[in-house]
Design a protein that fits this description.
4-stranded antiparallel beta sheet, cell cycle, Mad1
Length: 376
């Protein structure tokens, strides 16, 4: 494993060095190309400047030639006038001035033509220089492409980087496996009881919790064994008919029985309290219904409910309803002495037979009984 790791590290170093050299060569070629491009741009700018200057000089030369031709025409006209009118000092002077001006124009035209020729020569030199720079740039590009190539360098660099990353990941995995193996070896040494006396020491606690727990478990096991033996003897004596009450009373009550008895007592007490609370709530509900709606509801057998009005003239005056599925409303009015009275029969005929409304019937009955008591 170490040999493989060393080989991987060496390959990683070789690939890294090769990638760095390729990147360096690519960078140098890129810098050279940028310099040549910059020089080419400068030369092209100068070439454009000289071409513009050459065009300006050509325009000036054309203007001077036209001016020279005009002066020549003027001189010829003066010569014609001089021959016709005779020689005069004024004409001679003007003629001399015109010839001097024409001579100066010729000199100036020659100078401009010289400058124009120099500009053309300079322009030609710059053209040749630009051509040489373009040739040099093409050679640099060809050399760059033929030597390594931009795309090849990038692809090769990416491949080398990926290879380096893979080797690095593999090296990390090997390191992790090595660490895990070391930990496993240490664990095996500890499990086998291996101890380096020069570096490690074993200390034993005077009050070891494990030893105390082990001792308690042993005492508890002895007590349970004794109790089991006593129970076996009691069972044998009971089967033989020699068991006395003193023998049974000497035995301690089982812990589970006592816990179950406690749970049973708590459940009974809880049920008793729930019953009391339910009865209290039921009584409160009946009282509030009696106060708000004027009827005391008593539950009887077979799903029958007895309603006693607050304003009844006698205590026996009551109505009995039964819950049934035969009626659409689900409630049926049973016959009683109070329901057979004439006033109640009229209300039954109106509200139950025609309107089919028990709330309306009970409300009308309450108003009728209330009106009777107030009138009395």
């Amino acid at each position: 494993m170490r040999q493989r790791e060393s080989v991987l590290v060496q390959e990683n170093g070789d690939f890294t060095a090769r990638a760095r050299s390729l990147e360096r060569s690519c960078h140098e070629a890129e810098v050279a190309r940028m310099q040549v491009d910059r020089r080419l741009q400068d030369e092209q700018a100068q070439r454009q400047h000289f071409e513009q200057l050459s065009r300006q000089l050509q325009k000036r030369t054309l203007l001077l030639k036209k001016e020279r031709d005009g002066m020549r025409d003027i001189l010829e006209s003066y010569d014609a006038d001089f021959t016709l009118a005779g020689c005069s000092p004024q004409l001679i002077r003007r003629t001399n001035e015109a010839e001097a001006s024409a001579q100066r124009l010729r000199v100036h035209v020659q100078e401009i033509e010289g400058q124009l020729s120099e500009a053309w020569e300079e322009s030609n030199r710059f053209r040749q220089k630009v051509y040489s720079l373009e040739t040099e740039l093409a050679e640099v590009k060809n050399q760059w492409v033929t030597s390594e190539g931009d795309k090849f360098c990038k692809e090769e660099g990416e491949k080398l980087r990926k290879k380096v990353e893979e080797l690095e990941m593999e090296r990390q995995k090997l390191e992790e496996e090595k660490q895990v193996l070391k930990e496993q070896v240490e664990d095996l040494k500890l499990l086998q009881g291996a101890c380096n006396s020069n570096k490690e020491r074993i200390f034993h606690l005077l009050e070891n919790p494990a030893s105390a727990a082990l001792q308690q478990n042993r005492v508890r096991a002895t007590e349970l064994q004794t109790e089991c033996d006593n129970l076996r003897e009691c069972i044998r004596a009971f089967e033989a008919g020699n068991c006395t009450s003193g023998t049974l009373s000497d035995l301690p009550p089982p812990r589970e029985v006592s816990e179950l008895q406690k749970q049973l007592d708590s459940m009974l007490l809880r049920n008793q309290r729930l019953k009391e609370v339910c009865q209290k709530k039921i009584q409160e509900f009946r009282t509030i219904c009696y106060i708000l709606f004027g009827y005391m509801v008593d539950v009887q057998l077979d799903g029958q409910y007895k309603l006693s009005s607050m304003y009844a003239e006698q205590k026996a005056d009551s109505l009995v309803f039964k819950q049934t599925t035969a009626q659409e409303s689900g409630v049926q009015l049973l016959e009683t002495e109070f329901s057979k009275s004439e006033a109640v029969l009229q209300l039954i005929e109106l509200h139950l037979h025609h309107q089919k409304s028990f709330p309306a019937f009970l409300s009308a009955l309450t108003l009728d009984l209330f009106s009777r008591q107030t009138c009395m």
